[in-house]
């Protein structure tokens, strides 16, 4: 059996209870060495064999899984954050299915949640934005043309941009072609939830310069939108005149 597990954004106590349990019972662990906090590997047993997928191809990952399966071992494939975002898990699941190897999925806390905590923010503020756009700049992995940043930015919604900290000049320019202005608040969140976490807030018009000034060019998320401005209308759900299934409105 292969268990895909989300490791969380960095802090080792942000893995789920289930994820930690899977790691403790694993005979083989293949972890995404570029981003998973290695402290988590301390949960593994002394006999556990540990592989760093940053140094492996998909074929090598699969043959390691196949070998473990032949020996009836439990394998954990440990991905950063939640595996469903930029985790390249679909190709692994499909290959396992083809080989008749069973697998499970354990979600994790994505870095976009860690980043919201770092800025003490709420992405979905009433009257400001009720939508979160998660995307990335095209890099060596292409992005479909209809999802280019400028067109997504037309909504003026909350945006969380992954994998783009080394492309801040182009990102800033594309975002400004949409509904945002030079003054729209933005933040760069480096290594959210790690001890070395850094939050840099700036107007969107200064994003690329802020990245240069603070030496941030990887392992960071870019947050953009008026949710960072401190302006909003209070929630309807908790308003005294709002009835719900659980609470009757007061007069
Ligand atoms: N599956 C992961 C994302 C993997 S893609 C998740 O759910 O978070 C790798 C990118 O995620 C990095 O380039 C960076 O943009 C972002 N990232 C991952 N961990 C991060 C962290 N702790 N703080 C800020 N950004 C992070």
Rounded radius of gyration (Å): 21 Å
**Bound small molecules, deduplicated:** S-adenosyl-L-homocysteine
The main sheet comes to: 5 strands, parallel
Task: Provide a count of the helices.
Answer: 7
Overall pLDDT confidence: 96
Could you name the ranges where pLDDT drops below 50 across 5 or more consecutive residues? none
Q: How large a portion of the residues is in β-strands, by DSSP E? A: 15-25%
User: What general outline do the C-alpha atoms trace?
Assistant: globular
CATH topology of the largest domain: Methyltransferase, Cobalt-precorrin-4 Transmethylase, Domain 2
Strand order of the biggest β-sheet? 3-2-4-1-5
CATH class of the largest domain: Alpha Beta
Structural class: alpha/beta
Helix content: 10-25%
Q: So, CATH architecture of the largest domain?
A: 2-Layer Sandwich
Structure commentary:
GO terms for molecular function: precorrin-4 C11-methyltransferase activity. It is an enzyme of class 2 (transferase). Residues 51-78 form a coiled coil. Belongs to the precorrin methyltransferase family. Pathway: Cofactor biosynthesis; adenosylcobalamin biosynthesis. The protein is α/β, with parallel strands linked by helices and 251 residues long. The protein has two domains: 2-106, Tetrapyrrole methylase, N-terminal domain (Cobalt-precorrin-4 Transmethylase, domain 1), CATH 3.40.1010.10; 111-228, Methyltransferase, Cobalt-precorrin-4 Transmethylase, Domain 2 (2-Layer Sandwich), CATH 3.30.950.10. Helices cover 24% and strands 20% of the residues. It has seven helices and ten strands. Strands 3-2-4-1-5 form a five-stranded parallel sheet, with helices on both faces. A five-stranded mixed sheet has the order 6-7-10-8-9, sandwiched between helices. α5 (149-152) links the parallel β6 and β7 (158-162). It is globular. The model has no long low-confidence stretch (mean pLDDT 96). It binds S-adenosyl-L-homocysteine. S-adenosyl-L-homocysteine (SAH) binds next to α4 and β10.
């Amino acid at each position: 059996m292969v268990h895909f597990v989300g490791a969380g954004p960095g802090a080792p106590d942000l893995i789920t209870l289930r994820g930690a349990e899977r790691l403790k019972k694993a005979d083989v662990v293949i972890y995404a060495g570029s981003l998973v906090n290695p402290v988590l590997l301390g949960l593994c047993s002394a006999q556990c064999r540990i592989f760093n997928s940053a140094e492996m191809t998909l074929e090598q990952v699969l043959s390691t899984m196949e070998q473990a399966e032949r020996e009836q071992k439990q394998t954990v494939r440990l991905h950063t954050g939640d595996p469903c975002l930029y985790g390249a898990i679909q190709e692994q699941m499909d290959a396992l299915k083809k080989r008749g190897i069973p697998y499970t999925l354990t979600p994790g806390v994505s870095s976009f949640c860690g980043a919201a905590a770092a800025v003490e923010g709420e992405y979905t503020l009433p009257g400001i934005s009720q939508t979160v756009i998660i995307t990335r700049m095209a890099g060596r992995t292409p992005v479909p043309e209809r999802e280019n940043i400028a067109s997504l930015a037309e909504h003026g919604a909350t945006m969380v941009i992954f994998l783009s900290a080394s492309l801040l000049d182009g990102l800033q320019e594309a975002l400004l072609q949409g509904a945002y202005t030079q003054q729209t608040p933005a933040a760069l969140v480096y290594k959210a939830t790690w001890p070395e976490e850094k939050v840099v807030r700036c107007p969107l018009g200064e994003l690329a310069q802020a990245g240069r000034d603070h030496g941030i060019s990887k392992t960071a998320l870019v947050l953009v939108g008026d949710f960072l401005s401190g302006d909003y209308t209070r929630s309807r759900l908790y308003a005294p005149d709002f009835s719900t299934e659980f609470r009757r409105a007061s007069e």
